[in-house]
Every structure is written in C-alpha cells, then in structure tokens.
Design a protein that fits this description.
Blueprint lengths: L3 E2 L3 E2 L13 E3 L1 H6 L1 E3 L7 E7 L5 E5 L15 E5 L5 E4 L4 H4 L6 E5 L5 E7 L4
Length: 125
C-alpha cells in the first residue's frame, strides 16, 4: 500500500497557527499505510501526536536510505506515546539519519493507535 502523504504546516515567524485546523486523524488506513512527508526538511520539522487509545502506542520515524542518510544504519527512531494523556512532540530530526533517497520522511504507527498527527515546519529566523 502507498503511504498517506501529509504536508507539513509552516509556522510563520512572529505569528501563529490554529491547532484545531490541521491535524490529521490517525485511523486504520494511516496505521496500515504509514505516512510520508515529501520534500522533508527534517532539521526544521516537529511532529505533534496525540494518542486517544487507552494504552501506549509506538510511533516510528523510519531510518532513511543511504545515501543520503549516511547514519541510517543506526536504525529507526521509535518512541512510546503515552495513553490518552494529551500531546507529545518529536523532533527536530537529522537528515543524515531519516531522509529517504526521494527526499521524503516515513512515519509509522503501532497497530490500534488512534489520535491525531500534525507535522509542523519551523521557519528559518
């Protein structure tokens, strides 16, 4: 199955973003297919995840392809997301660990996870 594409929301310096408009619902399709972020800028990306399921779940940022990710051999980044306890933030990331050869980033979710994912791009200031 093809990964579900999510476009990062760009934060604007000296401004704001509404958190109610933008997050993507983590549903069975997203859990099955995973997420891709095209033209990723890992050093300027922040992932915000909520877990609404009653148990902990694992979010996985997949190791990249070598090249360009020369440190991909260190493996995936896996983080346990607490159960029903609000939002958790991940990132920024290192391109030489997570960037795929097509310039994307890949994110997966543990089976059964529900909640939301929002990918934010931090501007250069």
């Amino acid at each position: 199955m093809a990964r579900t594409a999510i476009v990062p929301r760009a934060l604007v310096k000296n401004s704001n973003l509404n958190s109610a408009t933008g997050p993507t619902t983590i549903d069975a399709t997203l859990v099955t297919n995973g997420v891709t972020v095209a033209n990723a800028k890992p050093e300027r990306m922040l992932i915000r995840v909520t877990n609404t399921e009653g148990s902990t779940n694992v979010l996985t940022v997949r190791a990249g392809d070598n090249p360009p990710a020369l440190r991909a051999g260190q493996g995936d980044l896996t983080v346990t997301v607490a159960a029903t306890t609000g939002a958790q933030y991940f990132g920024p990331f290192e391109s030489d660990k997570v960037l795929q050869d097509d310039g994307s980033m890949s994110i997966d979710f543990e089976t059964g996870m529900t909640g939301t994912i929002d990918i934010l791009e931090i501007p250069k200031v």
